Amino acid sequence: MNNQESQPIRNDLNISGISTTAGGVYRDVRIDGMAKVNGDLDCISLRINGTLGMKGSVKSEEITVNGMGTIDGPVEAAEIRIDGMFTLKGGVSCTGLDVNGKSKIEGRLQGDKINIGGEVTVKGDVQCEAFETEGNIKLDGLLNAETVDIRLHSLSTVREIGCERIDVRRIERGFWKNFSLMGGPRLKSEVIEGDDIFLEDTEAEMVRGTRVYIGRGCKIKRVEYKETLQTDGDALIGQSLQV
């Protein structure tokens, strides 16, 4: 048996009305109506424009969400883009994740590049190479990344950050820069640890790094640094120590 013969036959699945179906192996899956899927789904692409309630796992090369819904099982994909409202109750493993809508991930999130422009809550740990956000994030676990870039225009919280480089800056938006329905621009964290650290508008119990800059609007209880510590005159630091 050659490799071509061993590949499963993949048909397309299109749901435009109200339908309940089992999972299966497909090429392209498109949800334009209201769909319930009871089982695991293995496909090349999954596009959700309507509403999906899924009891099972998803394995796909590409997932695009413009509608809303829930997936109960773990999700494994190359690229995931969420422009609608979606809840992922299992862990998520992907190459790239872009969220411009609203998403809740109840398990662990693992990827190469994560870009958040909307609103995201993650209950588990986040592991990636590059984490970038101009949105609103609430990460209850550890954010572990090589680089972290956070642009603040509202309140974001991350329990603990460990990285090589972190850059947190306030977004300047002219007259409206100090107004937001979700509060002023601020990052709250218990521990921030990295080699190169640049912070603005950040509240933390502990900041520990090699080269550290504590900028405007920061309130840090304790700073530990190896090589350099620079501070803005507007920053409040309880205790600093070179170690």
TrEMBL record:
Domain of life: Bacteria
Family per record: Belongs to the bactofilin family.
The protein, known as: Polymer-forming cytoskeletal protein
Organism whose genome encodes this protein: Paenibacillus physcomitrellae
Lineage: Bacteria, Bacillati, Bacillota, Bacilli, Bacillales
